[in-house]
Amino acid sequence: MTVFHIVCRSLAQALLMNDPIRNVIESDFRARAFDYMRRGEKIPLPLLLKVGLHGAFVEPLKFLMRFMPGPVGLQARIWQARLTMRKFGKNSLIDFGAIIEGPGNISVSDYVWIDRYVELNALAGEIEIGRRVHIAPRVIIAGFGGVYIGDYVGIGANAHILSHSEVVDGGNRMSGPMIPEEMKGMKTAPVRLEKDCVIGTGAVVLPGITIGEGAVVAPNSLVIKNVNPGTIVLGVPARAVSRRAPVTVADI
Q: What is the mean pLDDT of residues 193-209?
């Protein structure tokens, strides 16, 4: 995947968002250029030059940091996170290929592992991650409505945590980033994953959902309503099927 494709993909995902994206368009020159393009309008020359220079000099460096292998790359990403994130705790890791947009709106506590090819998008809103959390490969977290992850949470590979997503809304469209925001139906609301909960591989958590303390979402489930503490849910849509015993080991 080229630098150009990664940038376009990140912006396309961001522009799926409705109300919060207006602030992004105003504050991010890349988003403004994209908005001109998708509306069929000419991009102003100064803005076009700024995007071109950023793509030529900044994006290759970000690409190198993102995909640098081995211990050197791991340490480089840690240094970058400490410089750019709101908070980045001790002994936390960012693995190979992770895509992090809006790092200034992201807080990471101690002993967190952000695994390979995870995507954290907080160009608007925020993402807060508690202690000793593992976010497995290819997870996507959209933080535009706010995503709050408690301590000891596990998120399985390919799960989607969405605080901002398209919804059925009258006659509005739901067809993605190439449609201007005023034509789309969207929902924005905080998502909370409380202490010791587990989100299974491939599960999807929609905007406005709280997963209670110690709850378990089975793989490939679709969560459309709150999950009570200690409850195990499964299915599309997810329904309660069992209970999980409370965690009894000490916090570390």
A: 98
